[in-house]
């Protein structure tokens, strides 16, 4: 596992095949991420729904 540290004025951008993920803001113990991805990319919050690659993504409301 790679662990990176940034100061408040610095950023980290991870470039994936579906788009970049950028650390936008760090406030205390919270981190805000910016995710640019096509609609077909599934983004899960594990505390709400455990990651399971075999499940179909929920439809996106228009």
From TrEMBL:
Function per UniProt: A translational regulator that binds mRNA to regulate translation initiation and/or mRNA stability. Usually binds in the 5'-UTR at or near the Shine-Dalgarno sequence preventing ribosome-binding, thus repressing translation. Its main target seems to be the major flagellin gene, while its function is anatagonized by FliW.
Subunit structure: Homodimer; the beta-strands of each monomer intercalate to form a hydrophobic core, while the alpha-helices form wings that extend away from the core.
Gene name for this UniProt entry: csrA
GO cellular component: cytosol
Keyword Cytoplasm: yes
Similarity remark: Belongs to the CsrA/RsmA family.
Keywords: Bacterial flagellum biogenesis, Cytoplasm, Repressor, RNA-binding, Translation regulation
Subcellular location: Cytoplasm
UniProt keyword annotation of Zinc-finger present: no
Residues spanning the signal sequence: none
GO terms for biological process, alphabetical: bacterial-type flagellum organization; mRNA catabolic process; negative regulation of translational initiation; regulation of bacterial-type flagellum assembly; regulation of carbohydrate metabolic process
Pfam families the UniProt entry points to: CsrA
InterPro entries, alphabetized: CsrA, CsrA_sf
Protein name, as recorded: Translational regulator CsrA
GO molecular function, one term: mRNA 5'-UTR binding
């Amino acid at each position: 596992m790679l662990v990176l540290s940034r100061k408040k004025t610095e950023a980290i951008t991870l470039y994936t095949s579906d788009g970049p993920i950028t650390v936008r803001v760090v406030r205390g113990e919270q981190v805000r991420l910016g995710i640019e991805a096509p609609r077909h990319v599934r983004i899960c919050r594990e505390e709400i729904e455990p990651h399971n690659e075999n499940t179909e993504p929920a439809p996106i409301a228009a």
